[in-house]
Amino acid sequence: MANAEMFKCIELPGRGRALVTTRRVRAGEIVLKDSPSLLYVVSTAFERFCGNCLRICPDSDLADCGLVKFCSAECCVTFPKDLCSALGQLKETEFDSEEENQARFLLAAYHLQLVSPEEFEKLLLLEGEGKVDDEGVSKLHGFVENAVKSWPWTSQRKLSPKLTTDLLAKEARNGFGLMAPCEKIGERSVRGYGLYTTAAFINHECLPNCCRFEYVDKPGKSNTDIFIRAMHDILPETEICISYFPVNWPYDLRQDKLEKEYGFKCSCERCDTEQGWSDGEGEEGEEEEELQDQDESSLEKVVGQLQLKASSFPNEEEKNGEAEVEEVYAEEDDDFHHAMFFVKYLCPVDDCGGTMAPIPQELDLKQEKSGDDDGDLFLTMECNMCGHIRTGDEFRKDLEENSILE
């Protein structure tokens, strides 16, 4: 599960519970490998993906309930029959796709209470508290209450409108979307969601030091585990952070998403800088939008916009654990510190928008061969969205061609 020796869970002022490093973490290290407490396939994808493991299963038949498929006989046997039966009752409802997704989650959550009360209690410790007077929640709770009444409860059952609202709030705050393969570059949809009770304590940062990887369609067990991987070296006593959305989202979109779905406004150094851009008018504001646009992901495009924005970056002192970039810029160019983040960590594939992190094998080879402890600028990187691999030599060549590296 977790590499527990790497981090501790503590309460941070203004941040809530958080994971903080207990030792130096090297670029490419797996900080956390976490398994889901529960999974569910979304209503728009149940005919394409396995209801048990979320792998692709385009040619299999639907189960008896008509609302779940399985990729193998093993998954068919493993999936709980009483949960399948409860899912079948969704056909009698008039739920829209969002309500059906919420119902699928609630059935999975209450079934977890049935088969693993200890894991269910862990869900209840996650952030999120709902409002009981929500009419939509009342409708969902009525459906769930009827759907689970025939389950073989052997202990005191917890089932109430308040618990249902709280579960929905916890899922909204803490659920991890497991993505379907790219159908076209830049277009990916969610195949299902999982709740990961350790990874849920990782907070957001607009310039994160870690990113999440998943390999749902890989063979073997544990295919729905998620991997939190260090993007660069991280010092001890540093908060482990990921971005809750693609790192190249513009300021206004990031703030809107964080406020509506997670209940806070971000005031990190990047947001403070880009808020100044957003407040500006004219060509500079347009240039900033181009820099942050999701379609502008190649190194050439990013570099071109960085040159235009040179005067817009305030002085910043390097944060704990941030990758050093002295090899790229002279001291007088420290203003470009967070701009260089995009050059190094934004996937160079056009329209991808994924985040790059060193692959763990490359880190091991590098340390074995040279014992180099001076940085991670030219490690082999992997994109967490499209899977693109970029070698250190390729990155060096790109920097030289764009006159970033002398």
From TrEMBL:
Matches recorded under InterPro entries: ASHR2-like (IPR044238), SET_dom (IPR001214), SET_dom_sf (IPR046341)
Pfam families the record matches: SET
Ranges of compositional bias, category Acidic residues: 280-297
CDD domains per UniProt: SET_SMYD
Region feature Disordered, mapped onto this chain: 274-299
Domain named SET: residues: 2-245
Protein's name according to its UniProt entry: SET domain-containing protein
Source organism: Riccia fluitans
Phylogenetic placement of the source organism: Eukaryota, Viridiplantae, Streptophyta, Embryophyta, Marchantiophyta
